[in-house]
Structures are given as structure tokens and as C-alpha cells.
């Protein structure tokens, strides 16, 4: 890591803002993260981290999470167990259309990112970790800024980070964002409903059935996924179905993490009730 800072207290809501996830993006995202060094945290903790340059692999590729950079990222996620997670990226101008295109879901399996202002885009993180490392009502989002960001872009990033750091849960964040970007949040909420109803529900069903189904090889996994999709009324395209496979393989690799995370939360919530 070439930048790391922890703000707040260990108990309570865990937040993680991370940049430099792949390639040389950290050379740009460090500027936004450093602006958050003195940000106000409303209870709980906030960890800021920026990674050094690494080979570029898309976070939509399961192989990323087996790479050195991806493993470091997941180690950080598992250590901090964030309910609120912001993954900072940067993009070059020629990639703007690719990131925001309306048919991005059909081509890449994920909806197009939404521009807030000053070239800053927002959307959910990769479904490969959205399903495996986060609960449905957590806030795992991506914030994309132009590479070599302008002061205006950095200020927009700071405004979003202030909202996220000053909130305690997904609902509160979305309500605050809605007061500034109502149409954008309406679209993001529709994306969330689609994810909940289709990808998330299918993935949960696959996990449950895998407990009762011996999976000896890839063909067994493929059959299990196809059986779940045939039985359920899920609206998923062929790219998303492939992502279900990748998400499940990551889940198996790190399968014990989520149950540990849930147990930790239960203990914390019980402690709050006792007090």
C-alpha cells in the first residue's frame, strides 16, 4: 500500500474506501483519498487505502481476485468487514462511453455507470464480490473519476465521500444522495431492485442447493446453475450467468468469510441491545 489511514473507532459501522485497485489508477485515486484524510465520520470507523500500480485485470474477471492485487484487496475487505465500501477507480476519456453505455448490462453483465457531475461516475461494485463479500443491504459502490482528475472532479468525489462517511447505512446514504441527484438515485435504486430480484436471488439459491449437491467438477457446477435458473423466474443474460459461475467459485475459495462476518455482526448487534 502506498497510502493508508484509519479514522474513527473500531466499534460500530465499518467503512472502507480503497483506490488503485488495478493498473496505474492509484496515481489518480490517491488525490481523492488524501482529500478524505480529515473527513468527518459519523460513528464507527473509516479506513482509507490506496494501492500501488499493478497489472491491469478487470474486476469483472474472476482471475483478478486470484491475482496478487486482487488478493490484497480481498484481504483488506475480510480484515475490515465493511458494511459501507467505496471502490475508487479512474478512466480515460475514450472509455467514458464504454462505462456509461445503456447496453452495458447486455455486453458486460452490469448496468452502465451514472454520471453525477464533473465526469464523476457512480455504480455498484463487481457482482463477483457484491454477492460474496457483502450483504444485500450493504453499500458496496464504485466511484469513477477521470484519470488525472481536475479540481472540480476531486471536489465532487469529496462531496460523495463526505456523504458516505457521514452515514450509517445504505438507506441513509441513498436518501442523502437523492437530495442532490434525485434522477440518478432513482435509476440506481431500479438497478438495485433488479440485482436483488435476479442475480442475488439466483446466487443465494445456488449456494443453498450446493450444500446438498456434490460438485465434482465444472460440469456439475454448470448443471446446478442451469437447474436453478430453469426452476426460478430469473431475468439474467448469458454474461450474467457466466458471472454467477465466477461468483460461486470465489465464494467457495473464501466461503467461510461471510458466515464469520455475519456472526461478528450478530455479536455486535447483541452488544448494542444489551447496552
UniProtKB/TrEMBL annotation:
<dbReference type="Pfam" id="PF09892">
    <property type="entry name" value="DUF2119"/>
</dbReference>
<protein>
    <submittedName>
        <fullName>DUF2119 family protein</fullName>
    </submittedName>
</protein>
<dbReference type="InterPro" id="IPR019218">
    <property type="entry name" value="DUF2119"/>
</dbReference>
Amino acid at each position: 500500500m502506498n497510502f493508508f489511514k484509519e479514522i474513527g473507532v473500531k466499534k460500530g459501522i465499518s467503512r472502507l474506501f480503497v483506490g488503485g485497485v488495478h493498473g496505474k489508477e492509484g496515481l489518480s485515486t490517491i488525490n481523492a483519498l488524501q482529500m478524505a484524510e480529515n473527513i468527518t465520520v459519523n460513528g464507527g470507523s473509516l479506513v482509507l487505502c490506496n494501492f500501488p500500480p499493478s497489472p491491469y485485470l478487470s474486476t469483472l474477471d474472476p482471475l483478478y481476485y486470484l491475482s496478487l492485487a486482487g488478493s490484497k484487496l480481498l484481504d483488506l475487505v475480510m480484515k475490515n468487514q465493511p458494511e459501507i465500501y467505496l471502490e475508487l477507480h479512474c478512466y480515460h476519456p475514450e472509455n467514458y462511453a464504454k462505462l456509461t453505455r445503456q447496453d452495458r448490462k447486455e455486453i458486460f453483465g452490469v448496468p452502465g455507470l451514472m454520471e453525477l457531475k464533473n465526469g464523476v461516475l457512480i455504480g455498484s461494485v463487481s457482482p463477483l464480490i457484491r454477492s460474496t463479500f457483502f450483504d444485500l443491504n450493504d453499500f458496496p459502490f464504485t466511484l469513477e473519476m477521470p484519470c488525472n482528475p481536475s479540481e472540480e472532479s476531486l471536489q465532487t468525489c469529496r462531496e460523495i465521500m463526505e456523504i458516505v462517511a457521514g452515514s450509517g447505512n445504505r438507506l441513509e446514504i441513498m436518501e442523502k444522495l437523492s437530495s442532490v441527484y434525485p434522477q440518478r438515485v432513482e435509476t440506481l435504486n431500479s438497478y438495485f431492485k433488479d440485482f436483488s430480484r435476479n442475480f442475488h436471488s439466483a446466487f443465494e439459491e445456488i449456494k443453498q442447493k450446493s450444500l446438498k449437491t456434490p460438485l465434482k467438477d465444472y460440469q456439475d457446477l454448470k448443471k446446478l446453475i442451469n437447474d436453478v435458473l430453469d426452476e426460478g423466474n430469473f431475468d439474467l443474460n448469458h454474461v450474467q450467468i457466466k458471472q454467477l459461475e465466477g461468483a460461486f467459485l470465489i465464494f467457495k475459495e473464501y466461503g467461510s468469510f461471510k458466515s464469520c462476518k455475519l456472526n461478528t455482526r450478530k455479536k455486535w448487534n447483541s452488544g448494542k441491545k444489551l447496552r
